[in-house]
Amino acid sequence: MLDDDEIRAALEGLPGWAGDRSGISRTVEAPDFPTGVRVVDEVAVAAEAADHHPDIDIRWRKVTFTLVTHSEGGVTRKDTDLAGVISDIAERHGAR
Ligand SMILES: C[C@H](O)[C@H](O)[C@H]1CNC2=NC(N)=NC(=O)C2=N1
Questions:
Q1: How far is ligand 1, taken at its centre, from the CA of residue 4, in Å?
Q2: HSE-up of residue 38 (Cα within 13 Å, Cβ side)
Q3: How far is it, in rounded angstroms, from Cα 85 to Cα 24?
Q4: Tens digits of residue pLDDT in 30-83
Q5: Would the pTM of this model clear 0.80, i.e. be above it?
Q6: Which residues' Cβ are closer than 6 Å to ligand 1?
Q7: DSSP of 10-79
């Protein structure tokens, strides 16, 4: 589990992500609704491969991802690693 300073340091390398020990989140805006859903679909594949699953909220073109490691009761490297993967996927689909 990461402490406050470790989370702050990790967030500096994850543009668009914010949060604390209760979880880290990012909202991306896709060009349109189907593209947002495609981002979620690709994140689902990466999440399943990592056996680590974000909470996901889709509202029209805006998709919010929230990560926390429930089994550890806090934010871990699994979360910060998957955050980077999600940002890469979003970027590839033109979601900012
Ligand atoms: C058995 C399996 O490894 C666990 O249930 C995993 C699955 N995905 C998970 N995802 C997240 N975000 N947190 C977890 O603690 C978690 N645990």
A1: 22
A2: 13
A3: 14
A4: 999 999 999 999 999 999 999 999 999 999 999 999 999 999 999 999 999 999
A5: yes
A6: 51-53, 68-71
A7: HHHTSTT-EEETTEEEEEEE-SSHHHHHHHHHHHHHHHHHHT---EEEEETTEEEEEE-BGGGTB--HHH
C-alpha 92 – ligand 1 centre gap (Å): 26
Quote the ligand 1 centre to 74 CA distance (angstroms): 12
> What is the rounded average pLDDT of the residues 4-11?
97
- 4-92 maps to which CATH number? 3.30.1360.20
What are the structural domain ranges in the chain?
A: 4-92
